[in-house]
Amino acid sequence: MTHALVFGGTGMLAGATKWLIENAEHVSVVGRNKYKLEQLRPEYTNNNFQLVTLDYKDSKALREFLQQTIRVYGPVDLVVSWIHSTSPDAIPLILGELQHQKNPWRFIHIKGSSHNLSGITNEITVPNNCVYGDVQLGFKIEGSTSRWLTHEEISNGVISAIRHNKRKTVIGTLHPWSKRP
Question: Which of 6, 16, 17, 165 has a CA-to-CA distance to 36 between 20 and 30 Å?
């Protein structure tokens, strides 16, 4: 990977973000919370990543960031996106901006499991030059109880989806939906 973008890469995805920083030539980590972004910095002395505080609900700022990062670091190879439904324009904007690239690229779309099942399993339309990877976050059933996934389980599942070019990944289980925590 030459140029990767990570949206929502702090918190539960911090392990996957750190793996990308170690394995890509350049990574831009985009988040809304500067404090959470800065938590990634102390472990790394290399300059192959940038931390970008940006509210991706702001379409103009997001578009400007995408155009600038492509000018500076070249075409994007990979986008890892955990953008919540409170920002409905962000993913279409990212897909639209990157559809003009000549090189193929991958979009790993992470979908959380706390609400309705249809929101996790729905598909989106992607440009012809994009390989789409759908990562659905479920839950774990342990005996007669269930629990949400740990940060480590989520990050390891996302890393696996990236490393193995998976088109569809379910981390944990989605069924039976009535058993979720």
Answer: 165
| Structure-block tokens of residue 169 | 């990944």
Region for residue 43 given its phi and psi (left: phi exceeds 0; alpha: psi -120 to 50; beta: otherwise): alpha
State the amino acid at position 114 in one-letter form: S
Contact 74, 5 (CB under 8 A): no
Number of compact structural domains in the chain:
1
Instruction: For residue 57, give the CATH number of its domain.
Output: 3.40.50.720
Q: Per residue in 144-165, pLDDT tens?
A: 999 999 999 999 999 999 999 9
User: From CA 81, how far away is CA 9, in angstroms rounded?
Assistant: 8
d(CA 136, CA 4): 20
d(CA 49, CA 41) in angstroms, rounded, equals 9
